[in-house]
Design goal:
CATH class: Alpha Beta
Order of helices and strands: EEHEHEEEEEHEEEE
Number of strands: 12
Structural class: alpha/beta
Bound molecules: inosinic acid
CATH architecture: 3-Layer(aba) Sandwich
Number of domains: 1
Length: 179
């Protein structure tokens, strides 16, 4: 499919599943090397990260634990900047190596909020792995953001776990909004 329509918006094909998988494989290899013998806790940030998280985990061969946290701050295509809710963060992060897995980092506000919560438990280390990053939208640098799939322009994207008003998460590829 070269384009899709979701409600009032048109989207065109932006990143194919094959490209995403190739990149994910490389990130997996990097994590296997960086975290050898460290048994990290890999925490997926729901809802958007579930597809990426599943594909990434298939590439991880080291011993690791898995958890999910849910944070919602989005309405429509614009960040409200207000974190409405966050739940599910495990309480055993002390002295552990933590890898947060995000679908996309836009303003970075969600990540900032989660990182503050994680740091309260004094983990041994915290790194972030995000499939997508919109560098032009980022409000402040995030030093923990070490593993990035693709840097993309400041356009709204859907598919591969990412939604527009709750729709489009099931699309295999990633599509970008056409204005
Ligand atoms: P941030 O707090 O502005 O960095 O936004 C992070 C969250 O906003 C992501 O985890 C997504 O759920 C959502 N988000 C940001 N940009 C997009 C987009 O282009 N498409 C779909 N969701 C997005």
């Amino acid at each position: 499919m070269n384009s899709v329509q979701i409600e009032d918006k048109n989207f065109e094909l932006f990143l194919e599943n094959d490209q995403i998988n190739k990149r994910t494989r490389l990130i997996g290899i990097q994590l296997n090397v960086d975290y050898e013998d460290r048994c990290p806790i890999i925490i997926g940030v729901l809802n958007g990260s579930f597809v990426f998280m599943a594909d990434l985990l298939k590439e991880i061969e080291i011993s690791c634990e898995i958890a999910f946290i849910r944070v919602s701050s989005y309405k429509d295509t614009e960040s409200t900047g207000i974190i409405k809710e966050a739940f599910g963060l495990p309480d055993n992060l002390h002295n552990r190596d933590i890898i947060l897995v995000e679908d996309i980092v836009d303003t970075g506000l969600t990540l900032k909020y989660i990182l503050e919560k994680v740091r309260l438990q004094a983990p041994a280390s915290v790194k972030v792995c995000s499939l997508l990053l919109k560098p032009d939208a980022l409000l402040a640098p995030v030093p923990e953001l070490e593993y990035i799939g693709f840097e993309i322009p400041n356009e709204f994207v859907v598919g591969y776990g990412l939604d527009y008003n709750g729709l489009g998460r099931n699309l295999k590829d990633i599509y970008s909004a056409v204005n």
